[in-house]
Amino acid sequence: MRLLLVEDDVMIGAGVRAGLRQDGYVVDWVQDGVAAEAALDSQQAFALVLLDLGLPRKDGLALLESLRRRGNRVPVLVITARDAVNDRVRGLDLGADDYLVKPFELHELAARIRAVLRRHAGRAEPLIEHGDFRVDPGTRKVFYQGREVSVSGREFSLLRALLDRPGQTLSRAQLEERLYGWGEEIASNAVEVHVHNLRRKLGERAIRTVRGFGYVIGEASAACRSGASLS
Amino acid sequence: MSIRRQLVVALLTALLATGIGASGATWFAVRKAANDLFDYHIEQMALSLADQTLATPAQAAVPLGQDYVVQVWDAGGVLVYISRNGAPLPLLHAGFENVSLDGEQWRVFTLHTPDRAIQVAAPADLRSGRATAVALRTLLPILASIPVYGFLIWLIVGHGLRPLTEIAGAIRRRDPASLDPLPERPMPEEVAPMVAELNGLLLRLREALDKQKRFTADAAHELRSPLTALQIQLDMLARARSPGETQEAIEGLRGGMKRAARLLEQMLTMARLEPQADARRVPVSLDQLVAEVATGLESLAEARRVQVRLARLERSTIEGEPQGLHALVRNLIDNAIRYTPAGGEVRLALFTDSAGVAIVVEDTGPGIPAADRARVFDRFFRLPGSGADGSGLGLAIVKQVADAHGAIVELGEGDGGRGLRVTVRFQAA
Question: Closest Cα partner for A126 from A139, A109, A145?
């Protein structure tokens, strides 16, 4: 899951990035509004934008406004020191999905990111359930056909990317974009390796290869499907 | 003490005193007039008696009231006539005289003719009685009018003081937190300056309060950033899984702490500067101050591997506020060190020329783009990309102290167009 962090304060930016990385997110960090705009224009893979408002070169609210005007619907979570009700209302009205006032705790930030992502995916419940999969983004636990499977951070991210749009095929490049931030070394076969490992843990049918296109999440097994309908 | 009561008492006392004075004067005047009249009267009586040939004293054709006494003496000094029963008045020299007889005061006129002496006398208290009656008649209307005057004065003074009462009421009814000016309706000229002064005071209070409010709001806003950084590092520490991560988080906490402490210190400096606009001025030796501050910042410079050089240090003393000037010099040098990359240099110069005393601090840092130079004096303004260390208050403090001392702050490029050169110029006294 790749996030764009827009924060001009070096200490806060570095801290948030380190914290979210521990949570398994891929975090790209820019320090001004213009750089943020460029990043969003060139890269569609961001699942969410963490936006500070008091930014050099282009103010956060202006950035948000122009983003929405151009039809970019990426979820935006505003993190700011401006706590006046008017500021919050304006931020939300301009198209922010949530508003977090500084100072905040990392786990609240993480919870809000999960909530925004959940809402954006059109779910109300915290668990992602699809077919044989039950995934808890909060605890990063994966259940497949009722049993818990331990997966690495990247594997989890890959699984989430596929589960976010079930039935949609994601190319290797699209998956790479979602799994790796700027400047990160990517082995040419990185995605294949993660898919391979996941299949080893979950079974061959969990992730299907669409030849020439990429990967798609596997169909639910018959047993599980009937189980789901019974419950 | 109420002005109204004071005025009523004072005016009535004055009125009463004038009344008593007037009736006293009347009493004296009337008594004098009465005396003259009575004297004339008894003199005329005596003269008319002298003209008559008194065959027998009993034939005296003078109409005598009860009060008058007439005595006639012959040339031998024998009393030949007395108009009443009783002891005679003594024979006196010619003219008027006051005589006491049997406890009674008499006014006597004695007329000597060649063959006899004629005396006419009247009781003295008769005259004083008349004079007192007349004087009292003068005083009476004044006494009677005092309550009326008192009432009128009470009303008039009350009316005159109404603008004051109204202002007092307006102040009493105010919202205690309100610093709005009092309504400037047409006012008597005695009251208008007071209202104007009061409004001036309210305005200054309001400006000061607004300033404080803005500062508090700014400060609260600015403190959020270091607090956020601290909170995040604390969270990182709590979830650290290896000694390396723990160490990293602790380093982060330390940095955040240092930053918050510095911000706080700068805010306090700024807040302390606020009310000292009219602080006492004393001679301050700038060369000592600059040398002292530079020495104090040596360790910071060392830690940042920045060379601080005293290029020129002339003796110069100005009249100023020592604490403020210390903050100014410290922030100038501290700022220069902080924004200079490792291996760079900060040059200090202090000299006097025809325009006055100048402190020049030059660094080899990134400088300030001309477009941003006006804004860097704003509180909490930080240049984009200037790092997390600055409080955004350094140059604001410099500017504030400079303003209080009538000094000018100029920003420019360092030698060779790079770095920042700050010049603080104190006007020659």
Answer: A139
